[in-house]
Amino acid sequence: MNDIERLTVAQALLKTVTKYTSTKDPDSLRARADADMLANYERMGMKSVDLRINGEKVGTYSVKVSKPTTSTTRTRLVVDDSEEAYRWAVRSATDEFEDWCIANIDRFCQYALDEFGEVADGTHVETDTAAAQPERATGTVLKVDPPKVAHALGVQLPFAVAGLLSGGDE
Q1: By the 8 A CB rule, do 79 and 122 touch?
Q2: Of residues 5 and 93, which shows the higher confidence score?
Q3: Angle, vertex CA 52, rays to CA 48 and CA 56, nearest 5
Q4: DSSP category for residue 67
Q5: Whether residue 140 sits in one domain with residue 126
Q6: How far is CA 2 from CA 6, 23, 96, 112, 165, in A?
Q7: Mean pLDDT of the region 85-95
Q8: Which of 31-35, 126-130, 163-167 ranks highest by mean pLDDT?
Q9: Rounded CA separation 49/128 (Å)
Q10: Do 52 and 21 have their domain in common?
Q11: How many CA atoms lie within 13 A of 155 on its CB side?
Q12: Res. 170: pLDDT tops 60
């Protein structure tokens, strides 16, 4: 085969393979396999399977999962009345840090809360709580070793490729 003929075959394979492996088309072979894999994860906790052809391992198919999180609570200070907070800062700060404290009133008030548990005048405390999140599926990963697939198919490879190009189930 010359270069143009090889390119033509490669392009035909690419178009066919793309149709089967698209993750955007819900009717593609990949989308259906992903749905089965994710259902197995939800039902049985199965995260990975070996891919085998004629008994030979040729790759893996895995579920990507998020890391579980613990609940978190964040406390922050909100300045409601700047003038009152400034007066508090002037009374609370030492002379050498007074200018910095006034210029960074939000940070100074937060520091007073974090270090001493003191809520500045003209401010209030807000608490945000994020609930714990369990591990959850975020997608799938398909890893296939092409030379191992070719070896596992052996003499069946030409028929498998021909069937793929003609839209068959080979």
Answers
A1: yes
A2: 5
A3: 130
A4: P
A5: no
A6: 6, 33, 83, 78, 20
A7: 78
A8: 31-35
A9: 40
A10: yes
A11: 0
A12: no
Same domain, 13 and 95: no
Which tokens sit at 27?
């009717």
pTM of the predicted structure, to 2 decimals: 0.62
What tokens were used for 157?
């490879």
Question: What is the band of 102 on the pLDDT scale with cuts at 50, 70, 90?
Answer: confident
Same domain, 14 and 98: no
Residues 6+ apart with CB under 8 A from 67: 135
pLDDT in the model for residue 169: 54
The letter for the amino acid at 116 is: F
- pLDDT score of 129 more than 80: yes
List the beta strands (DSSP E) in the chain. Answer: 48-53, 56-65, 72-79, 123-130, 137-144
Q: What is the percent of the chain where pLDDT is above 90?
A: 44
Sheet holding 56-65, edge to edge: 48-53, 56-65, 137-144
Closest CA to 58 of 154, 167, 158: 154
Q: State the total domains in the chain.
A: 2
Query: CA 49 to CA 61: how far, in whole Å?
Result: 5
